[in-house]
Amino acid sequence: MIKPFDTQLQVALRALNEVVAPALTGAEKHVVEQLHLTIATLGFVKERLPQARRYYRMELRSFLDLATQAVTLAGVGLADACAGLDDCIGAAEALLLDPEADLPDYEAATGALRDGIARLSSEAAGTPRQQELERLILNGSKQIIEQSRVWCVPFGFEPAPDALPAAKWL
Amino acid sequence: MEIVYRWLIANAPVLDRVSIVHGDYRSGNFLFDEGAGAITAWLDWEGATLGDRHQDLTYATMPTFQHLAEDGVTPLASGMLPVEEFFAAYEQASGLSVDPDRIRYFNIYNRYLVVVLLLAASTRASMHSGTHQDVLVNYVAGVGYIALSDLRDRFAECAG
User: Fold this and answer.
1) What is the pTM (predicted TM-score) of this model?
2) Range of A25's domain?
3) Yes or no, beta carbons of B149 and A149 under 8 Å apart
4) Are A90 and A102 found together in one domain?
5) Is pLDDT above 90 for A81?
6) Which of A2, B58, B133, B159 has its CA 20 to 30 A from that of A49?
7) What digits encode the pLDDT tens for the residues A34-67?
């Protein structure tokens, strides 16, 4: 029987917490710190791994929405830059329909959309569309960044995690 | 980030006086002699440059390095004193003015810098096994989206 990832992470974490950490009492602070950071990193992976596919699909959809709005707004005045982003939009839409798609595929498609939006924004600089497009990107990026913050909550850096919006991928 | 970068280039103020800029000017980067009540050394100079004093002044007041005062409301620059008091103390000690427009500019500049350090430099360094503390650098990158959110919000206010 192949063990679930969750079980494997659970046993590794228990060994580090209950066997290795007590054995390092009095060890150099640098060593103990790296152990605790390793435990915390594995804890993050254990919590988020089962949700990763849903998160990456949600993130891709968010960038897809923003890219589609950006192309609609930029219109014919920036045809070349829009054409490049249109290709990324088409690829992302196809990927979301592909049952064989894997996490790196979602990450790559999201990265391509993000780069395409940035390129379009650069092309729009100095044109009549610049201000409106920048406003669209700033407004649209708010909820994307907030969801990234929600995803990172298990790292423990959020001063008031309860004040963040609900996780959209769950 | 592309939009903020263009804004920073377009709005960079003309330097009124060349200063030694530390680049990571905050609590945690100095040694303090409690007996003498004095700072005895500044550490971590790898980001140092010749530039505008307002860069360090705003860096020390970044939310990332703030604590709240005992009243639970007042932010303390680098956990030490309220921002306005900090600027006033700087003016008194240095004899140099603190320009609100430059403070506004460098508030965006430093937020941009911190996001690059966290979400690009730290992530890349740990991804490529670039330091002896990869696990630390990787973990700290977890603050990156808080910094990016802060940059987005401050820039949206600033750019109107």
Assistant:
1) 0.91
2) 5-51
3) yes
4) yes
5) no
6) B133
7) 999 999 999 999 999 999 999 999 999 999 999 9
